[in-house]
Amino acid sequence: MRTLSDFTRWLFVVLSALIVSLIAWNTYRLFTQLKENERHKMSIWAGAFEEFQQVDITNKEWNSKLILNILQSNTTTPMILYTHKEDAYSVNNLSDEVLQDPENRQALIEQFSSEFNPIEIRYNNELLQTIYYGNSPAITKIKYYPIVLLVILLLFYSALVSFYNTSKSAEQNKLWAGMAKETAHQIGTPLSSLVGWAELLKSEDIPKNYITEIENDINRLKKITDRFSKIGSAPTLSPMDIVALTKETCGYLKSRSSNLIAFDIDLPDTSILVALNAELFSWTLENLVKNGIDAMRGQGTISIRMSSQNKRVLLHISDSGKGIPKKHFNKIFRPGFTTKKRGWGLGLSLARRIVEDYHRGKIRVLKSIKDQGSTLEINLPEVA
């Protein structure tokens, strides 16, 4: 069932198409009428011009102001007059430069001939002149008016769609941020209880390594809670050594991964300072690595490379999985998009939000080859 917003959008499209069609139809009718008027006006002008050439103006009996007025009244229609006997050209309502450029003149003659049939002036069955004339500036403007109107409506519709998508995206982001904070709140209650139970277990006769593992998992839950609580609010960024933080996160992921997953890590020997939020950056790296492991179906090689270029840090996370189709390069970062049967499509969306919105960086699919793997790139600015 379509929502009200979908109905409104389609109604707007139909009404816009109807309005454009009506305007285009009326404009075409007006354009056709003006063309007909132009043709009729030029026929009268040609008749007056022919009459003017066939009289002796020195004859005192000739005193027709009407013909002169007709000849002088046409100040808009561009014309090229060709006199056959003298093999000469003249122009009216055109620049004299047309006469000096044969190629431009011939191009105008062909253009005018396509717009109107040339008018021939004869006397005693002898062809004296041919008049080539084209659309007046007013007709030319009206001719392109529907196209301009259509472009304006398309731009307006594009702006409306962009506003709709932006509003929808903002609403979704607000909803997910609220869900993340609520999740952090819900985890916090049993987590506090687990901390208390862990303290009680220390007084019991239980091996210390068991208590240590429980405390490690509790600390991990605290970290997860802290991450969720930061979604939806501007995190605090501090200059940190991204090399050390990446090494620490990779060590944790390696210890928690199957022996079927090989880690190939190549990081710089020197520290690189980047304005980071440690929890959110680690979360991003974990999401990318886990997505790579899923793409390899739990068996393969994860490669992590880091380099520094022009005050930018480039972090490449590669896997040896099935690859990403090129048509999905941008889609995989959209909220809700997933190719997994049991996926929410939030991991990479959160990764992009953390990298681009919070850390002023960029994240993209650098390359991907079918059945050979993919490489994702994180690009972050170094601390000046």
Using brief descriptors, characterize the structure shown:
384 residues; alpha+beta; 3 domains; five-stranded mixed β-sheet; four-stranded antiparallel β-sheet; 55% helix
Question: What does this entry look like structurally?
Answer:
The protein is of the alpha+beta class. The chain folds into 3 domains: 4-135, no CATH class; 140-212; 235-381, Heat Shock Protein 90. The protein contains 9 helices and 11 strands. The protein has helices spanning 4-53, 65-73, 97-100, 102-115, 137-202, 208-230, 242-256, 278-295, 347-358; strands at 79-83, 88-92, 119-123, 126-133, 238-241, 261-266, 273-276, 300-309, 312-318, 362-369, 373-381. β1 (79-83) and β2 (88-92) form a beta hairpin. 18% of the residues are buried. The model has no long low-confidence stretch (mean pLDDT 79).
Q: What is the strand and helix layout of this fold?
A:
Blueprint: H1 4-53, H2 65-73, E1 79-83, E2 88-92, H3 97-100, H4 102-115, E3 119-123, E4 126-133, H5 137-202, H6 208-230, E5 238-241, H7 242-256, E6 261-266, E7 273-276, H8 278-295, E8 300-309, E9 312-318, H9 347-358, E10 362-369, E11 373-381
Parallel strand pairs: 6-8
Antiparallel strand pairs: 1-2, 1-4, 3-4, 5-7, 8-9, 9-11, 10-11
Helix pairs in contact: 1-2, 1-5, 5-6, 7-8, 8-9
